[in-house]
Amino acid sequence: MRDPIARALVWLLRLVLPARGRHCTTATPPTTEPAPVSPWSRPWTAPSSRDVRAVFTDEHTRELPELQRERAYAAAFARLGVDYDYPTMPLGSLVNRERVSA
User: Fold this and answer.
1) Which residue has the higher pLDDT, 16 or 1?
2) Inter-helix orientation angle 49-56/66-80, to 10°
């Protein structure tokens, strides 16, 4: 008599209580893809605003012609470890584009 009562009780508990452990049907399958890394979790690696301001407000570079000034900016940023690709220089006036007839 105890065995059928115990089986009925286990069956009833399985219906009422959620499953846990390795036989749980609601568990998510393990993913092989790592979680995305937040860019804020690592320290700031770019130059500070004080360093950048010092490059642009240098008295020596203000006296230079525009092209040499941009080259001086590029050299100063290279010393800081940053790529500088002449964002303030109007390259359209320096490069003569001609059509090539094929």
Assistant:
1) 16
2) 150
Among candidate residues 93, 53, 97, 44, the one with its CA nearest the CA of residue 73: 53
CA distance 67 to 86: 9
In this predicted model, what pLDDT tens digit does every residue of 67-79 receive, in sequence order? 889 889 889 988 9
Q: In 10 A of CB 52, how many CB atoms?
A: 16
Q: In this model, does residue 21 exceed pLDDT 80?
A: no
- Cα torsion through 85, 91, 96, 98, rounded to 10: 80
Q: Which of 43, 46, 94 minimizes the C-alpha distance to 66? A: 94
| pLDDT for 17 beyond 50 | yes
